[in-house]
Amino acid sequence: xxxxxxxxxxxxxxxxxxxxxxxxxxxxxxxxxxxxxxxxxxxxxxxxxxxxxxxxxxxxxxxxxxxxxxxxxxxxxxxxxxxxxxxxxxxxxxxxxxxxxxxxxxxxxxxxxxxxxxxxxxxxxxxxxxxxxxxxxxxxxxxxxxxxxxxxxxxxxxxxxxxxxxxxxxxxxxxxxxxxxxxxxxxxxxxxx
Length: 193
Prior knowledge:
- One of its GO terms (molecular function) is ferric iron binding.
- The protein is mainly α.
- The protein contains 6 helices and 2 strands; from the N terminus they run H-E-H-H-E-H-H-H.
- It has a single domain, classed as Ferritin (Up-down Bundle).
- A two-stranded parallel sheet has the order 1-2.
- Helix 1 (17-47) crosses helix 3, helix 1 (17-47) packs antiparallel against helix 4 and helix 2 packs antiparallel against helix 5.
- It is elongated and about 60 Å long.
């Protein structure tokens, strides 16, 4: 909740300063999450190995590019709402509610298993942010919904590598990226992924 001293001096027409600050706070969390996602995707791009190296390596960079565009859109919306954007690495670490990505150099399918779990969290939180802005700021809501289309498509690209011909997902039920990495690696070892 914004305090009187932390309220912006201005915001967009039709929103009051308190609402503008509340929407900006929601967007700030999305900014941190997407900055973190872009860095995590580059980390995977640099650390992926194994038989699926090239396909995964090349699949990741376009995702990074789009996520970085979304980061810029969100930052500019926060500024439009009259609030200072926090885009430093320290602010990401201080404000995030998730653990740092912990998988280093690993097989492509292990990384994809971990990314499946990462994307699940990003998508769930992005959907909540869209829901939380639906009534108060349709412009922000529309932007977040637009992001979801592409982010969910990228998630499908990841999951397609983890699904067997019967439709079972190697990472079903996993809630931490280390579980996803382990289950992805097991599926790859069995030849199911």
